[in-house]
Design a protein that fits this description.
Chain lengths: 328, 68
């Protein structure tokens, strides 16, 4: 008797889910043990932190706060992160246009702001004209962030800009004294958004527009996929309410829904890895994938797994139903 | 499927129509047709017994194993 090996699609889906989950756990364990705080402003490591003092209405307090604001604005301007316009597109990808000037003074910034307020009211393109030459376009990769460690914050990689060149400050504990750490400033090609903790790839305006267009197309495909999934789900519910439960159509619908739900986080992950491949020249060892990518995937995977199990149960039920119907 | 249903052969030998067999056995024409065309996945022993009684034959006369 010949033994036939038939691969069950549902079993393949479940195995894929398990592989993805296990890979995710390993990924997290490799990077560090647990959840990282992603809200800390890392630029404060380089320059003396700006305190949270708000003060009152006295002249001294107002002057102090103005000084503080000017310092923060200048830091953002030097880091190329000033007056940011973000476009968060799709699947942890986006673009950013911001002011970048290492040599500009605070007076220059104030003069431009005033000119914009006077001349540019209600004009969307005025800012572009006014800041011409200092506006930089970036591809913003939300999936990639600077490497950090939980146990010892001083070991974390820090980004800053000096003379229009981005640097990563890498810490090393070669010193015998545990309280003194050595560090080295390594020049890097990328920029970094301290606001969103996202990697910025400097590009020209046309490339940024092209990237936005590709993201919009991908988003369109995703929306169409979502509409199809919702339509199939509605049809499934409708058929179930009519009493047509264990039919081949329902099995096909459940399989499609399960595949779509499971494949979304996988595709997002692959897309971001593909982006890394494209911009591999900009990446250094200090860049790591954001944990939220896996957390989001884990939010979606149980739903996909549930639909996979439903698909498995329904396909078995259809087989039994057919057997029952064709028993004379 | 390697099990071949020779119901039509036995019916021809006994000169019995599908309608007559269906009435005498007590199963619907549709089910009898499924059995005759070989689409059936299973046959109840009581159905087989009733068919054999009406056609005056053995189960082996109706069902035959043919190796693929």
């Amino acid at each position: 008797m010949k033994a036939k090996f038939k691969l069950n699609p549902a079993a393949v889906i479940i195995i894929a889910c398990i592989i993805i989950s296990v890979t995710g756990i390993i990924w997290i364990l490799i990077n560090d043990m647990g959840y990282r705080d992603t809200t800390q402003d890392w630029s404060n490591r380089i320059i003396k932190p700006i305190d949270g003092f708000k003060g009152g209405e006295t002249i001294v307090d107002i002057e102090y706060n103005a000084k503080k604001d000017s310092l923060a604005s200048m830091r953002d301007l030097k880091n190329g992160d000033g007056f940011t316009h973000n476009w968060r597109e799709f699947a942890y990808l986006g673009t950013q246009t911001s002011l970048a000037c290492d040599t500009c003074s605070y007076k220059w910034l104030i003069d431009k702001k005033l000119a914009l307020e006077i001349n540019g009211t209600g004009c969307d393109t005025c800012a572009n004209k006014l800041y011409d030459g200092h506006l930089q376009n970036y591809i913003k990769l939300y999936a990639w962030t600077l490497r950090r460690k939980l146990d010892h914050y001083d070991d974390d990689s820090v980004f800053y800009v000096k003379n229009s060149q981005g640097y990563i400050r890498e810490w090393s504990d070669t010193s015998k004294n545990v309280y003194i750490s050595n560090f080295a400033d390594v020049p890097v090609k990328f920029r970094y958004s301290h606001m969103d903790n996202a990697l910025l790839i400097p590009v020209n305006k046309s490339n940024a527009s092209l990237f936005r267009l590709i993201c919009r197309l991908l988003e369109g495909v995703y929306i169409i996929g979502m509409i199809i999934v919702l339509y199939l789900f509605a049809r499934l519910i409708f058929d179930l309410s009519k009493g047509f439960s264990f039919t081949r159509k329902n099995v096909i619908r459940l399989r499609f829904i399960a595949i779509c739900i499971i494949s979304y986080p996988v595709l997002v992950l692959l897309l971001n890895l593909f982006v890394k491949l494209i911009f591999h020249n900009y990446f250094t060892v200090d860049i790591m994938m954001r944990d939220e990518l896996w957390i989001d995937a884990w939010d979606t995977l149980p739903v996909g797994l549930l639909f996979s199990l439903l698909y498995l149960a329904f396909s078995r039920a259809v087989m039994l139903q057919e057997e029952h119907d064709l028993t004379i | 499927m390697p099990i071949v249903v020779n119901l039509d052969v036995m019916m021809a030998r006994r000169k019995m129509s599908l309608t007559e067999l269906s009435e005498k056995v007590g199963i619907t024409m549709a089910n009898l047709s499924i059995l005759k065309t070989g689409k059936a996945k299973a046959v109840r022993l009581e159905t087989l017994e009733a068919i054999c009684r009406v056609l005056n034959c053995q189960p082996g006369d109706i069902l035959e194993f043919v190796e693929e």
